[in-house]
UniProtKB/TrEMBL annotation:
InterPro entries: Beta-lactam-related, Beta-lactam/transpept-like, Diverse_Enzym_Activities
Pfam families: Beta-lactamase
UniProt domain Beta-lactamase-related: residue ranges: 22-389
Gene3D superfamilies tied to this protein: DD-peptidase/beta-lactamase superfamily
Organism: Amycolatopsis pithecellobii
Keyword terms of this UniProt record: Hydrolase
Domain of life, per lineage: Bacteria
Signal peptide stretch: none
Protein name (database record): Serine hydrolase
Molecular function in Gene Ontology: hydrolase activity
Length: 412
């Protein structure tokens, strides 16, 4: 499936000459060797306003980015897993306030870090259970090994969890190991980017009685026509190579460790970061969300559920700066809250962005990103393969370049 611009930008309220700034700006990243290549999609009111690609998906082999290039989307998997969980919620399978231990008994008695080192931690019992909404909102107390900011992070790394899972473990086994480690804080008391969505993926498996890949394929990807999205691919001719920034020159150089990710079906089905997809497929996913849970006659969620997911669930309606730990995440903290699977823009002034309150978004470790602006009817997608995503301010720049080109506010 390919994507092509299907409307005059002026009909969608955009200035075509200003849209051209997007490609000129990001082409410089490639020309200066900072990115291998990229693919960009901008829509408004369901129309494809700007579709472009530039550079190479494989620098050594000099293979260009193509319409059907396969990208590792890493944490852009999280919204898919969140949608899966909320589909089951709509069917009456659970309440958002239910303790996850009803389905995942390994979390029946979690303990919380109090003090001490990774080798000799002092813990206490959790005063309340981890609930389903804690997983969806990253307020569970779980963490990531790659944060490298806390003794509990170090305990994850000691258990073999930094960026990836230990070889040979499946999702159920990973979840059991995480449940044996202490929580970073009492459930619901803070926000911390974590393996919460991976645990949510296991929750989906147990509640549905299907493996996560089967649920995704049958209940989400099939109905939405996402024909190229899966946990891993054997299509080596289409998949983009992985890169990282050289610590001295910042030039994009091959990253063989991350390059193994997404090749073949993994043992561990990561609901937090395991999918490979295309721009065309993820465009369909964002349009399904923008349209309130329906696309081309396939309704997966109700509009009311989408609104709940994209509302700020941080207690007191605070932003991540106030409630989150100052660690790596796929979004700035200032002005952004967090919903059920998405960052949610509360205050554009505080966030210093041209976007609109109510915008929701997320990104992936290889610098992929998307956002959806329901008020303006705008979606934006950016794909490349450079880790980590904090290397360049691509996401902020992309929003600025899209919105400076939107010259009519009301036309959809």
């Amino acid at each position: 499936m390919t994507l092509e611009t299907d409307t005059d930008p002026a009909e969608a309220g955009f200035d075509a000459s200003r849209l051209a700034r997007i490609d000129r700006h990001f082409a410089r990243y490639v020309d200066e060797g900072l990115l291998p290549g990229w693919q960009i999609v901008v829509t408004r009111g369901g129309k494809l306003v700007h579709v472009s690609k530039y550079g190479r998906r494989d620098m050594a082999a000099e293979r260009p980015v193509e319409s059907g290039t396969l990208w590792r989307i890493f944490s852009m998997t999280k919204p898919v897993t969140s949608v899966a969980a909320m589909m089951l919620f709509e069917e009456g399978a659970f309440e958002l306030t239910d303790p996850i231990s009803r389905w995942l008994p390994e979390f029946a008695a979690p303990r919380v870090y109090v003090k001490g080192s990774a080798l000799n931690p002092v813990t206490e019992p959790a005063t309340s259970p981890i609930r389903v909404w804690h997983l969806l909102s990253h307020t569970s107390g779980l963490t990531y090994g790659f944060h490298q900011a806390h003794p509990v992070d170090a305990m994850y790394r000691q258990a073999g969890f930094e960026w990836f899972a230990p070889a040979g473990l499946d999702l159920a086994q990973c979840v059991e190991k995480w449940a044996q480690l202490p929580l970073l804080f009492q459930p619901g008391s803070e926000w911390n980017y974590s393996v919460s969505t991976d645990v949510l993926g296991r929750f989906v498996e147990v509640v549905s009685g299907q493996s996560l890949d089967e649920f995704f394929a049958q209940r989400i990807f099939g109905p939405l026509g996402m024909i190229d999205t899966s946990f891993g691919t054997d299509d080596l001719d289409r998949v983009a190579s992985m890169y990282t920034a050289h610590p001295g020159t910042r030039q994009a150089v091959s990253n063989s460790a991350f390059g193994k990710v997404g090749i073949g079906k993994p043992d561990y089905l990561s609901g937090g970061g395991g999918l490979v997809s295309t721009a065309a497929d993820y465009h369909r996913f964002t349009q399904f969300l923008l349209r309130g849970g329906e696309l081309d006659g396939a309704r997966l969620l109700s509009p009311r559920t989408i609104r709940l997911m994209t509302s700020n669930h941080l207690p007191g309606d605070v932003d991540l700066e106030e409630y989150g730990r100052p660690l790596f995440a796929e979004v700035p903290y200032d002005g952004y809250g967090f919903g059920l699977g998405f960052a949610v823009l509360k205050d554009p002034v505080k966030a210093k962005t041209l976007s609109t309150p109510g915008e929701y978004s997320w990104g992936g470790a290889a610098s992929t990103a998307f956002w959806i602006d329901p008020a303006a009817g705008v979606t934006g997608l950016f794909f490349t393969q450079l880790v980590p995503s904090s290397t360049h301010p691509i996401r902020q720049e992309m929003r600025k370049l899209v919105y400076q080109a939107m010259v009519e506010e009301t036309r959809l």
